[in-house]
Each structure stands twice: as C-alpha cells, then as structure tokens.
Amino acid sequence: MAAVVSVPDRRLASKATILVVEDEADIRDLVRYHLEQEGYAVEDADSGEKALERAATSPPALVVLDLMLPGTDGLEVCRRLRADDALRDVPVIMLTAKGTELDRVLGLELGADDYITKPFSPRELVARVRAVLRRASAAAAPPAHEEDFFRGRLHVNFNTYEVAVDGQPLALSLREFELLKFFVQHPHRVYDRLQLLDLVWGQDVHVEPRTVDVHVRRLRKVIERDDSAPELLLTVRGVGYKFNPDALEP
Ligand code: CA
Description:
The chain is an alpha/beta fold. The protein contains 9 helices and 12 strands.
C-alpha cells in the first residue's frame, strides 16, 4: 500500500465529491464554501427530488442532507438512498434545525451516518465530513478473510495476484490487477474516471482520466468473451464504468 504523500495544496489531496442538499441558499453557499476550501468538489441541490436525481446520475462520496426540505424531505431522501443498490453505501450527514431526540433517532435509524444540529459551525461540519469519509473508506476495504473472487469463468486471487479465465492464467500489470480487483469487489456500482483514479491509483498519483479508459480496454481484451461487446466491464454513458458479475454465469 502506497504511503499517502502530504501535498501542500489540499485541493490536490482530496477530490471527493460532496452533494449538499439544502433549500436555504445562504446555508448551502456557506457549506459549499467551507467544503471547497478543504479541497472537496461540491455539487448542490435545493430539493430532495433534485438530490436523488443528481445522486443517481453520479454517486457522490458523501451527502450533506438537510432534514427540512420542501417536497421530498431529508428523511425520505435518506430512505430512498438506502433502498437503492447503487447508493446504499453513500454516507449521509443529516443537518437538522430540529434538535429533538426523535429526529436524531429517526435520522440514524434511516441510515444517516452522522447528524449536525443547526446552527452549526462550518469547521465542525468539515471535520465530521472528513471523519465520516474516513470511516466509509475503512468499511469499504475488503474483509480480511476474503481471499479471492471466483464466479463463473473468472477467478481472481487477491493474495497471490493470480487471475484466470476459464482456468487459463492471465498476465496483468499490477495496476490492471488492482483495477480488476476493485471492480470485482464493488459490483453493480457505477464509478466515474476520477473516482477510479482516486480509489485505484490513489490520491497521491496524478494521471490523466483517460488512463482509466486504457486500462479498462486492456482488461476487456482478456476477460470479456467479445471485447467489442463488453458484458462484464460496462460503460455507463456519460458517467463511467461498472462491473456486472451476472454475465459471468450462463
Ligand atoms: Ca431547510
């Protein structure tokens, strides 16, 4: 595992996208400003509907979600995120003006990862965002007992770095292996190029997003039955890629 190099400009160090959902423009702008100062990319939405739409198009690394929204409120947004296979693991920090225990309990029961009561200090919010993201990436790491992925014709051994298709060993570069490992451990979920660069290449490595495309093409050549019609590493137009393990079985 590569050591994380400390980068003087924090903008380069963290590029995770945070979706800020808040109907009050001044709070939204305040949160945006402080998150951007910390180097996060920020998208925002002023309604629950827009938030769900945006999250579905491009899953954020984390959602800062106001409880009181017109129309679809924060609890409902949280409930729907948790019901969506592609979004259920996206951490949610709930903002609430109503500091009652009931709201807190409801929020947490619906799967919010943390909550902050208004009025809040932007500094505290940023600290919570950082902590929740750190927890989420630790949770996303594969469990220690998981040694391999074996399904249909594809076998990936995470310990020995061996990959075989139909029992035939493949020669992959280390990065190709890491990318394949990432996909098989995160099936069905769409990742854009920047996310894949962050998650597979690491935040301390600066390479072009099209490097991801090159590696995906190489992987397709060796794992797809027909690399001109991929069924495993799917392109999600305008977004990125996802791994579809279902195509491994007849
Ligand atoms: Ca509100």
